[in-house]
Write a structure and sequence with these properties.
Elements (H helix, E strand, L loop, with lengths): L1 E7 L2 E9 L10 E4 L4 E5 L11 H20 L16 H20 L5
Parallel strand pairs: 2-4
Antiparallel strand pairs: 1-2, 3-4
Helix pairs in contact: 1-2
The structure holds zinc ion (ZN).
Zinc ion (ZN) binds next to helix 1 and helix 2.
Length: 114
């Protein structure tokens, strides 16, 4: 397993990659534990059911889990307005995970991000 640490809104999170399947929650390729301040990524191997570019997929899964941590640490994890817990929503989290690189590129081009 490979580990690294990131700071998310001032809180240290440990990211562990290549976690054995048996040490992951059921049916998860990634998971964020807001109590343990950890993010785990499953050890994924190419097979007939997997996507072609696993590195691309794993980067997206990591962005997804980091965004969950941002939503938690920013206090909107379960206080998400009149949509039922949108901060817990897989839809908005995946949307940000997929869109963020594009947004960052635009932010850089527009020179509105450091
Ligand atoms: Zn999720």
């Amino acid at each position: 397993m490979e580990e690294k640490t990131v700071i998310i809104l001032g809180v240290k999170y440990k990211i562990t990659d290549n976690v054995p399947f048996e040490d992951m929650p059921d049916n998860c390729d990634g998971c964020m534990d807001c109590t343990a301040k950890t993010i785990k990524l499953a050890k994924i191997e190419q097979n007939k059911n997997s996507v072609r570019d696993l590195d691309c997929y794993k980067r997206k899964v990591l962005r997804h889990e980091i965004i969950h941590a941002f939503l938690y640490e920013s206090g909107i994890w379960s206080n998400s307005g009149n949509v039922t817990n949108w901060g817990l929503s897989e839809e908005i989290t995946d949307w940000i995970a997929i869109q963020f690189p594009k947004m960052l590129k635009v932010f850089k081009e527009a020179e509105c991000v450091d």
